[in-house]
Amino acid sequence: MKQKFPMDTFQSLTTPFYYYDVNVLNHTLQALTKEADKYNYHIHYAVKANANPRILSIIREYGLGADCVSGGEIQAALNAGFPADKIVFAGVGKADWEINLGLDHAIFCYNAESVPELEVINELAKSKGKRAQVALRINPEVDANTHHHITTGTKEDKFGINREQLGKVLDKLNTLEAVRLIGIHCHIGSQIPDLKPFQKLCKRMIEIQEQLAERGVKIEHINFGGGLGIDYEHPDQNPIPDFKSYFELFHTFFPAEPYQQIRFEPGRSIVGQCGSLISKVLYVKEGTFKNFVVLDAGFTELIRPALYGAYHQIENLSSDAPEEIYDVVGPICESSDCFAKAIRLNKTKRGDLFALRSAGAYGEVMASQYNCRKLPNAYFSDLL
Ligand code: LLP
Fold first, then answer.
1. pLDDT at site 156
2. Residue 146, ligand 1, Cβ within 6 A
3. d(Cα 103, Cα 81) in Å, to the nearest integer?
4. 312 CB less than 6 Å from ligand 1?
5. Which of 6, 154, 207, 254 is deepest in the core (most CB within 10 A)?
6. Ligand 1: does its nearest atom lie under 6 Å from the Cβ of 49?
7. Averaged pLDDT for residues 32-60
8. What is the rounded distance in angstroms from the CA atom of residue 184 to the CA atom of residue 56?
9. pLDDT at position 193
10. Backbone dihedral angles phi then psi of residue 10, each to the nearest 5 degrees
11. pLDDT grade, residue 151 (50/70/90)?
12. Which of 89, 150, 153 lies closest to 117 in space, CA to CA?
């Protein structure tokens, strides 16, 4: 079904802005929780995908926990009402103040990435007379077949602890009395187009679990990270990701023991399809070989096309005139400020409103003020 946009209201708003369809978000969350609940899976929303306070509070209402990668995200999650005991804290470079913030609020778990990090968590916890729960982030060496900038689980990546180092890490853990090992964590990448790599991941995590069992370590919590992709090509036909097959796969290929809890950290698959970047056409510029649509939004508002060559469906919301071919660019003084090349759009004129679809994840949250621009506003379908 084609998404409807409130055009009359849009005309009165200053562009560019983010528009969130709360219906889409609610339906996605209903589908997610329905499927995850079948297997008693625990979901921690990856705050990095979109930390807008209203988005966070809608997600929190569904009982999800939060996956945070900075002190700022922990604070944002707490402000939105996520209970501290449902917050996990990941990241290869946790600063002392961030670790302390987690300790002060007694967050559920640190996903620890290295021995020096474990030592610092231990030291800081000890000086507060506390014991921090940690999960070891394992580098599972599974290739996610996604864009190399968002692949995180191969041997070359900076993330996680390699399997052959596990023994040494366990030796170290035995000497650290202010941390308690409760689980293992992994994440192989983002926008993963097919489910096969997750199957490999299950196999690998079983091996790791066995490796730990040989050392007498019983793992209660297994966290599989995020990564489920969304359909950027067909946001209207396919607004809700296939959570059913995703969780079914884990249930089939990772048979959990009754004492174990299985966790996930989806980001994009929850918020990706509910958001669009709305922008106004400043100019239609005729070139020698092509025509450019110059929008008032640029990579300052949505950086994914410039940074990853990512595709976002672009629609002219104001025109149904016959289609022509255009490059769609922004106003930033860099040639990488281009959203799409040679795409078909309904004939476009100055003042038309455009939607850049599937921009709910890694859109608003990655906006910058480069060129001294203002950060975009956000509006919600149920509050307009
Ligand atoms: N857990 C960990 C440890 C992660 O590193 C990430 C994403 C997630 C969970 C959530 O993954 P998701 O379910 O959203 O795929 N800015 C890039 C994406 C970067 C993802 C980084 N890590 C983009 O715009 O495509």
1. 60
2. no
3. 17
4. no
5. 254
6. yes
7. 98
8. 26
9. 86
10. -55, -40
11. low
12. 89
